[in-house]
Design brief:
By secondary structure, the protein is an alpha+beta fold. It folds into five domains: 187 residues, no CATH class; 143 residues; 66 residues, Roll (SH3 type barrels); 85 residues, 2-Layer Sandwich (Alpha-Beta Plaits); 57 residues, no CATH class. The protein has 25 helices and 13 strands. A five-stranded antiparallel beta sheet has the order 9-8-7-6-10. Helix 1 packs across helix 13, helix 5 runs parallel beside helix 7 and helix 14 runs antiparallel to helix 15. The longest helix is centred in the middle third of the chain and has 35 residues. The radius of gyration is 49 Å and the shape is rod-shaped. It starts with a helix and ends with a helix.
């Protein structure tokens, strides 16, 4: 049982690589057996077709073009006679090369790129049928000498609507080709000539009827001949059995891709790089199928007509989508390799900034690749892009929220008010930053819920980042009972200051413990300290320790913490001191008589006489800060050499002599 489980694990681990190897083998097989590739190779074996075996292509004048087409037609007819007798690889390669020659004689600039070869071959068969029924007069078509006296760039073949035009731009400028309208005019003109017999050695009523029934060399001709007539009828320009065979092959390919996708989802690794490498298998498989396996299979079946155009469009869309997918994964993979360097932490701000840049580059690349794919299947992508210049304002307004969020994310990365992992507060909420994406910023709240804020809004908020605190503030008001005597309160204040200054995790320079006022039911003591830490867990621990020590000091002082209460005292009222009251009233009356009543302001001379006369610190207090620092200054004062005294020493000696009784 254990051996079976182990083998199953090894098979599961090797499955994607086996699939990749199978696709690579299919790619190599299709590459080595593709007619275009073999025709371009040189070999001594008689099975290889060389360019020298075919008629040369001349497009210098309308007459040269028509003569070249007729020569290629004759080669095509003799090759078809030989191929229908025996389906050989050499015959298939020769037919493919002759087909490419014919396609090169047409102006197909208005035909989508993926349909040009199929459209060119189909149009060539129409012309072969036309010129096989009516013999074109080469003498009526101008040659190089005739071009000198005729400045026209367009010539019509006598008795037909087929035109030959001079190319005025592009890579083939100056050459003469069959005009682009031939694609529409040739089929209509041929329908009017079907009553005229075709001059040919082929056992077929027309080239257009024979072409869809041909197959590749790997499909025996006997299978096609024994096919029921109902399956040989044309559907969308191709025999029904060929359409069913290609549809079945596409369905099998889709099933294989779906199974591979399910396997990848079930075996996704934890690491980013490993996950990206594994995810690249799916687009690679799609690319191998639509770029090599499917064209090779459809080439052997030889699909044609509108069905071939549909297959080519679907194949092109799938191939460009796979290219875009691979580009996206490749860019992400490249940036993940950069982030993997020792200088960049995986969840740091730099790492997230690099991931944002990779996402932007990936999006641009995907859009460009898909645009080329749309242009290849005939969508007017370039016209749409040109129209964006006119409708750019409308597009910008429609995309304004998305662009704002994108710019907001860039601002957050550049300005760096927060980093991934920072704890911050914003708009009445708090949370730890978990990620800054292209559209939004995600924060984990203290209750473990996930807060998602659009980047544009988050960049405009007032953000308090606690991660940048060098010290953390504790500011509390402690209330003790009103029964506390003044000296008890002084003792408590002094001991609290000593304890907080002595604490190793509290900044002694910031300790402030003061009797701050009379509350409604307590004597309030204001405590403000800074804890030397940036870690929240340590902050709460140190604050707890300081509060517990304050509790011990309050108990030691003999008082207690106050709480909202009312105390009713029942006592006999002794009344007020009338003697002292009369004295106070007499002093006020004297002020009034002498014009010295200090209301609303004290006289200026009184203020000048009172300034600085109050004894502070109170009697019995320790020395002030200046007196405390004076011995230190005297200890640091340098001695005067040669027995001479400084001016300060002389003044101090005279003051001491004056104070002696």
């Amino acid at each position: 049982m254990r051996i079976a489980t182990t083998l199953q694990g090894h098979v599961s681990a090797l499955l994607p690589w086996a699939l990749c190897a199978a696709f690579l083998v299919a790619m190599m097989a299709s590459f080595l057996s593709h007619p275009k590739t073999l025709m371009a190779q040189e070999s001594d074996t008689p099975e290889v077709v060389h360019q020298s075996d075919l008629s040369p292509l001349r497009t210098d004048s309308p007459r040269d073009l028509l003569a070249t087409f007729l020569a290629v037609r004759d080669d095509m007819e003799s090759s078809l006679v030989a191929y229908t007798t025996e389906n050989s690889v050499e015959g298939a390669m020769r037919l493919a090369l002759l087909s490419d020659q014919m396609v090169s004689l047409f102006d197909l600039a208005l035909v989508p790129a993926v349909e040009r070869r199929e459209t060119g071959i189909e149009t060539a068969t129409y012309l072969m049928d036309i010129f096989g029924r009516i013999d074109p007069e080469l003498g009526s078509v101008p040659d190089l000498d005739g071009l000198e006296s005729d400045a026209s760039d367009s010539f019509r073949i006598a008795g037909t609507p087929i035109r030959i035009v001079r190319m005025t731009d592009g890579d083939r400028e100056g050459e003469f080709l069959f005009s682009g309208t031939t694609v529409q005019t040739a089929p209509r003109f041929l329908r009017g000539l079907m009553d005229i017999p075709l001059r040919t050695e082929l056992d077929a009523p027309s080239y257009t009827a024979l072409s869809p029934q041909l197959t590749g060399p790997l499909i025996p001709a006997s299978i096609v001949r024994n096919m029921p007539p109902s399956l040989r009828t044309l559907w969308l320009g191709t025999p029904l059995w060929k359409a069913l065979a290609v549809s079945f092959a596409v369905a099998v390919f889709i099933i294989v891709v779906a199974r591979l996708q399910r396997w990848l989802m079930a075996h996704s690794p934890g690491g980013r790089i490993s996950s990206l490498l594994l995810r690249s298998l799916l687009p690679l498989a799609i690319l191998a199928g639509v770029s090599f396996a499917l064209p090779y299979f459809s080439g052997q079946v030889n699909i044609s007509g509108e069905f071939a155009s549909i297959v080519e469009k679907v194949r092109s869309v799938a191939a460009h989508a796979a290219y875009a997918w691979l580009f996206w994964i490749g860019i992400r993979l490249a940036f993940e390799w950069i982030i993997r360097s020792p200088q960049i932490q995986d969840e740091s701000l730099d790492a997230n900034l690099l991931r944002l840049v990779s996402g932007m580059i990936g999006m641009i690349g995907v859009v460009v690749i898909l645009a080329f794919g749309g242009q290849a299947i005939g969508l007017p992508i370039l016209s749409v892009l040109a129209g964006l210049g006119i409708g750019g304002l409308a597009v910008a307004l429609a995309l304004r929220p998305t662009l704002e969020n994108l710019v907001g994310g860039v601002i957050l990365y550049i300005d760096r008010p927060v980093r991934v992992g920072d704890f911050c507060s914003f708009e009445g909420q708090m949370g730890s930053v978990e990620g800054i994406g292209v559209r939004s910023t995600k924060l984990r709240a203290p209750d473990r819920t996930l807060i998602t804020v659009p980047n544009a809004q988050f960049a405009d908020m007032q953000i308090v980042n606690f991660a940048f605190c060098d010290q953390m503030l504790v500011h509390e008001t402690i209330g003790v009972r009103y029964e506390t005597e003044p000296d008890q309160l002084r003792y408590l204040l002094a001991e609290m200051r000593k304890m907080l200054i002595a604490h190793p995790k509290i900044d002694s320079e910031t300790v402030r413990v003061r009797f701050s006022g009379y509350g409604s039911s307590a004597l309030n003591i204001d405590v403000r300290i800074y804890i030397m830490t940036q870690d929240w867990s340590e902050f709460f621990a140190v604050r707890e320790d300081a509060f517990l020590r304050i509790h011990d000091l309050v108990t030691e002082t003999g008082t207690d913490f106050a709480f909202p209460s009312q105390t009713v005292y029942l006592a006999r009222d002794a009344g007020i001191d009338t003697k002292r009251g009369d004295t106070a009233k007499a002093k006020v009356a004297g002020w009034r008589r002498s014009g010295e009543l200090p209301f609303p302001y004290l006289p200026r001379d009184t203020i000048e006489g009172l300034e600085g006369t109050l004894e502070y610190p109170p009697r019995g207090s320790s020395r002030s800060e200046a007196e405390h620092m004076e011995p230190l200054a005297q200890a640091q004062e340098p001695e005067v050499p040669d027995g001479s005294e400084s001016i300060e020493d002389d003044e101090r000696r005279r003051e001491e002599t004056t104070r002696k009784p």
